[in-house]
Design a protein that fits this description.
The protein has 179 residues and is of the alpha+beta class. 16% of the residues lie in helices and 44% in strands. The protein has an eight-stranded antiparallel beta barrel with strand order 1-2-3-4-5-6-7-8.
């Protein structure tokens, strides 16, 4: 919010949402997908994800992350036991709310999982700035924590069909099971 360009986008989105109450909440319903590529100390990661938001306030998230750990570092310890290409699948179900332009996801106990400021939605894309309450060192490195604060970036998801399937991992990679 301190960045003037980001602040102006947020204020513009909030103005639009207050002028058209309910329009954003209707537009967000559906299935969204995206891809994140990350380079971090000790490796790289490519994550494909799918997020389905239902009218009743429930949602389902799933992803597949292809990871290549090149150097074992303290930052990479949680990702893999050994420096070898691997993949992992992850999914969860949660509840979601939208208040103005603020989107929030909650776990089964009502704890905040994730939040975002929706900047725009149309028939094909949703643009937002996201954040994470339970920020770990790994996540802070991912979003750009530099010791003085988090550098929030604008992200985009694409609207997709409800039956969209995440890509299969490359052949020969070991699956890392979530504990």
């Amino acid at each position: 919010y301190r960045n003037p360009k980001t602040r102006s986008k947020i204020l513009e989105a909030e103005k639009s949402a207050s002028a058209n109450p309910g329009q954003l909440a209707e537009a967000i319903i559906g299935t969204w997908s995206g891809k994140l590529e990350d380079e971090f100390e000790g490796g790289t990661s490519t994550t494909h994800y799918k997020n389905t938001l239902l009218r009743d306030g429930t949602m389902k998230y799933e992803h597949i992350s292809i990871e290549s750990i090149t150097t074992q570092t303290p930052a990479a310890l949680d990702l893999n036991e050994a420096p070898a290409p691997s993949y992992r699948r992850y999914s969860y179900q949660a509840r979601w709310t939208l208040n103005g332009t603020t989107y929030k996801e909650y776990n089964e106990h009502g704890g905040l999982l994730w939040f975002a400021t929706i900047l725009s939605i149309d028939d094909k894309t949703m643009t937002y700035i996201d954040g994470y309450r339970g920020a770990t060192n790994e996540y802070l490195a991912f979003v750009g924590y530099d010791g003085d604060g988090i550098t929030w970036e604008t992200n985009t998801q694409k609207r997709t069909d409800a039956d969209y399937k995440l890509p299969d991992p490359p052949e020969g990679l070991e699956e890392i099971e979530e504990e």
